[in-house]
Amino acid sequence: MARQLDEQMAGRYPVGQRLRVLDVGMGQGTQALRLARLGHQVTGLEQDATMVAAAREALCGEPEGIRERMRIIEGDGRDTGVHFLPGSFDVVLCHGVLMYVEEPDPLLAGLARMLAPGGLLSLLVRNADALAMRPGLAGDWAATLGAFDTAAYRNRLGLDVRADRLSTLTGTLAGIGAPLQAWFGVRVFTDTAADDTEIPGDVDALLAAEERAGRTDPYRQVAALLHLCGVRG
Ligand SMILES: C[S@@+](CC[C@H](N)C(=O)[O-])C[C@H]1O[C@@H](n2cnc3c(N)ncnc32)[C@H](O)[C@@H]1O
Taking the model in full, what pTM does it have? Predict the structure, then answer.
């Protein structure tokens, strides 16, 4: 997923240009820190105080140059208009967040407004069109049958959350002025692996297989997650 993001950024901006990045729902800041290390000016917006503290702690361990390039704000992703001026960012990330937002459209419209013309909106969402895959591959047939006509699911933390459909988001992105430019499947083969699964020796082959499937129909259509990239017109 990071590779796809870097590729989309590199395809839009000259190599070496310091981009203004907003990471909404950055969690403990893994992606935000990675981009700051690459030289970008990163702002992380996160509503959970514990996550914000973890991100601040991680940032403390970085060299001064990186610390100066990253700003962390505790707040709700739906309130970007309170914190920033429209058009303030070249790249806006919203990864693994839409699941927790009951009405994603206002959030997404706010994120699109934060983008400068030509800016990139990167979304990582749970794929509602493939919710039957996880229980199906686990042999839980009752749950599989229940997963076909819904966008609701229970995640591994036991929380009842929601998924998104590619067709719906394609329409939403067009409607908010950041039409879909590219999309990828993420976790085509590995979604059923437990979180504590040992990293296999042939991890490079695994990543290459995932990468290939994530770019290839029909595999990407049944990926657990979808990575969508919209571009502000
Ligand atoms: C699954 S984590 C993803 C973290 C990170 N983006 C990543 O991809 O690893 C979801 C994060 O979104 C945050 N979040 C959920 N709703 C949010 C909202 N409305 N505003 C800001 N953060 C939010 C949660 O607190 C959590 O840290």
Answer: 0.95
